[in-house]
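Researcher: Structure for this, please.
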Amino acid sequence: MNDLRRAEVLVGDKWIDIEFEEIRAGNRFRLFESTGEPVVDENGKSEFIAKTDPYITKDGVYGIDTA
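Model: Predicted structure, token format:
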């Protein structure tokens, strides 16, 4: 089973599949667990705006800052 999250960015009025590491600062994006469930933050949001490009965290996984 693939445990990776799936990412989508909003282009115009359509959500397009994208590799997480290809998200860029300013993109509106959303993530989905490998089960298909949307990733939701502590405030119940499932759509995010990237403040930064993705980066490798000290734990060796991708992270991104959101607005």
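Researcher: Any notable elements?
Model: The beta strands are 6-11, 14-18, 28-32, 48-49, 55-56, 62-63. The mean pLDDT is 94.
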